[in-house]
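Reopening this one. Same input as before:
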Amino acid sequence: MVSSTVTTTWLLMVAIGLFSWCATRRLKLESTPLQTALEGTVAGIERAVEEMAPQHAREIMPFVGSLWVFLVIANLTGLIPGLSSPTRDLSGTAGLAVLVFLSVHWFGIRALGLRNYLRHYLTPSPILLPFHIISEFTRTIALAVRLFGNIMSLEMTAMLVLLVAGFLAPVPILMLHIVEALVQAYIFGMLSLTYISGALQTQQLRQLDKAMPAIAMGWAISRAMEALSRQPEAERAIMRTLFIGLAMIESLAIYVLVIVLIVLFRNPLLQYVLN
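Same output, byte for byte:
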């Protein structure tokens, strides 16, 4: 037997698809109020995606945007008499969380390649592989339970207040429901966007970490050259400060390297893992 959550979810997807098709059929240079609202929504979502993953915004924008729109409408469906929000059902939020879980790995493998993407589970040490795997599943479960718990508690609270106070306070309850629905949709979407952008930037961050001392030295030298061009009379003081700074950067890089080698090869837990 088909549950009400499945029926409502399919109705929402069909309604969103039809509305999107009708609203984008005849776009004009002179925007109508509806077109202006749609363009503002798309621009806001695009800015949020570009802030998190500027190099991959075009790739993940359709998925994240569709997820956000669906969540907002699904969370607000509970306001319609006779309908319940699909996100108040754990099976519905679990389906969304699994979709995010699969999308994280899909975008990561597509951008980095299978070998490079799977390699980050072995860094900084293969010992941490079980913890990486556990974290993947726990954050997916937390994503589903968080949305389910908040929406279900919101609807139950609204129902209890209406039973106690009757229809004396419908407007505050309505506003609370709308605000909470928007907030929960935003949180779920931002967490999903964070997970996806983290998977896309794993290789880039690893390469950036390796080059960080060189980047710091290059930046210090460029700033010193700029200072010399402005104040050539302070050459001795600038060069002395520059060399001291470069020496400290190099010492810090060597110190970090030594610590990493100790953690990797002199870790007391390593023998228990290997045995």
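So the earlier flakiness isn't reproducible anymore. For the record, Residues 147 and 187 are 9 Å apart (CA to CA).
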